[in-house]
Amino acid sequence: MKRTSLILFFSLGLTLLCGCTKNEDNETLNIPSSCTIYYGDKYQLNSYQEWKSSKPFIATVDGSGTIVANHAGGCTVSCSKGSCTVNVIPTKTLYNEPLCETNLTPNKITNKFGTPDYWSDDYMVYRTGLSSTPYIYYAFESSGSHRFKGASVVVKKTLLNDLCEHLNQRYARQDASYYIWADEYVNNANEITKYVGIREDGGIGGGAMIPLIGPNNTSMWYTEYYRVTYEPANY
Fold this sequence. Notes:
Elements: H1 2-29, E1 34-38, E2 42-44, E3 52-53, E4 59-61, E5 66-69, E6 73-79, E7 82-89, H2 106-113, E8 118-119, E9 123-127, E10 135-140, E11 148-156, H3 160-168, E12 172-173, E13 180-182, E14 194-199, E15 208-210, E16 220-222, E17 225-232
Parallel strand pairs: 1-7
Antiparallel strand pairs: 2-5, 3-6, 4-5, 6-7, 8-9, 9-10, 10-11, 11-17, 12-13, 13-14, 14-17, 15-16
């Protein structure tokens, strides 16, 4: 009788041990290789682990495997049992984001967007064909190395709320009193790499200055538009 009980106890223990191993394997298999989440939404991984995110600015994850989409972009969440690539999609897209990186060259711009509508040593201007955001342009220093100064998007003032939502979904608001945003902290020194701001350049009645589109390639003022600037932080 004792021998039978011992065998049953041993068999039960072996079954429980095998069951735990099987569940752990299943848990690993249940982690998807990637997921797509809209801004502001959540995604449940159904895996209780010590999770971490490669870019909390883009998405955070807690111990229950709940991913929260914070800003548009991509990152990876991982634990000891696997990882998942996260792609956060914005729900508001007023225009395509311009290039903005240190040492950006005209060749990089034309390779992506083609020949601009207006081009000089100082500016490259692209027409979008949209009345809401009619121009995107890139500015360079007029002499010396022609260093990249920044990009600008011309946006109708009536779209201010949409514009702010567009930027909120992609960048971090820097000051509640001003229309200034910045991108995530992307390097080991925790430095911001670019700033985004909404500006009225002035001119008659305020508005946005658009270079090279007037008669004889003169600059023009559009009083019903903002100029949204993208500037490298180290310029």
